[in-house]
Amino acid sequence: MNPNPYLEDPDVILFLEFQKGDSSAFETLMKKYFKRILNFINRFIGNSSIAEDLTQEVFIRVYNSVRSYQPQAKFQTWIFKIARNVSLNELRKHKPNMVSLDEVWEVEDSEVKRQVQDLSLSGPDKDILEDERLKVIEAAINSLPENQRTVILLRRYDEFSYEDIAHTMNCSVEAVKSLLSRARENLKLRMARFFKE
Amino acid sequence: MDCRDIQKMIPIYLDQELSREEFLPLEEHLKGCVICQKEFKAYQKFWDILKDWKDLEPDPAYMSRFWARLGQKTPGYKKVIRDLKLVFLRLQVNPALVVVCMCLFLTFFLGKHYSQGQVENTVARLSSEEIELLEHMELAQHFDVIENIELLEDMDIWEKLDSLKPKNFS
Known about the structure:
Structural class of chain A: mainly alpha
Order of helices and strands of chain A: HHHHEEHHHH
CATH class of the largest domain in chain A: Mainly Alpha
Shape of chain A: globular
Order of helices and strands of chain B: HHHHHHHHHHH
CATH superfamily of the largest domain in chain A: RNA polymerase sigma factor, region 2, helix turn helix motif
Largest sheet of chain A: 2 strands, antiparallel
Number of domains of chain B: 3
Strand content of chain A: under 5%
Number of domains of chain A: 2
Number of helices of chain A: 8
CATH architecture of the largest domain in chain A: Orthogonal Bundle
Radius of gyration of chain A: 20 Å
Number of strands of chain B: 0
Largest sheet of chain B: none
Low-confidence stretches of chain B: none
Number of helices of chain B: 11
Strand order of the largest sheet of chain A: 1-2
Oligomer: heterodimer
Distance between the termini of chain A: 57 Å
Distance between the termini of chain B: 127 Å
Mean pLDDT of chain A: 84
Radius of gyration of chain B: 48 Å
Structural class of chain B: mainly alpha
Helix content of chain A: 55-70%
Number of strands of chain A: 2
């Protein structure tokens, strides 16, 4: 009988300690993953006001699954899979609060179509430009289809390997490569007109 | 490989996930193709720009909020079971032993409660004369004597009643 390779994962070991009754092991895992899950969910759904609520939901699901838990993946891929499912459920419940790059934005009391400035400029309005830069990035990521958004977030912000991304999304490594390729192409197209070279 | 194939592979090349067979031809192509070099720089630039989206910091009270929320979500009886399980595991106490001790305790407690209840039921059925009799224990000591006397039919005994009183009766 082949030994379970996931038993070498230190986070799996911690969760198994929790399964035996050591609640401090759960708190250690929570401290390690809370911020990462929070930011993944925040970037995925594009709504920081409920991101923490959803993050709590992820950990409640993890906590409640302790009795039946059997390591079948790295702890990291398992918890991010739960985070993705929670995020998808939220998106399907509510219309996503997406920012369109062609949206009519208010400027003081009048509504005018914003001309997004060349964000490569630096100068006295650097803070405003930073804010617009962020809006462009957020909008570009939120405009991606959900699978492409997942691979971009896991790769760029959590530095998952292609294999870990594949396990999280229940797909092959080749599928991940294809998704990443298309996602980066889409991001480049969406962001290029705002970031002049 | 044409430029279209090369440009598809650039993101994977940037991630250093290309196989050796793919990596070498791509590098060779990039050295000599200005268009693909431009694409490579564009991919690199926008990939770097994504990092400008800074992380959110969690609320410092997130841990205590989690435990409070978990407490609300868990039904009362499940919380009790969960806490008991944690106690058993920590103390390494055999649950069967605990159950046996609880049964013994309940048997003792219920038995005592039952006998006390029986006494109370008996007292509840007593008449006021009988209760008065119990309150005067001296009379109770001689109750068996009084019980044997056919008082109502025998006038002689009524006349001699005084002599039947115990000496200490007041």
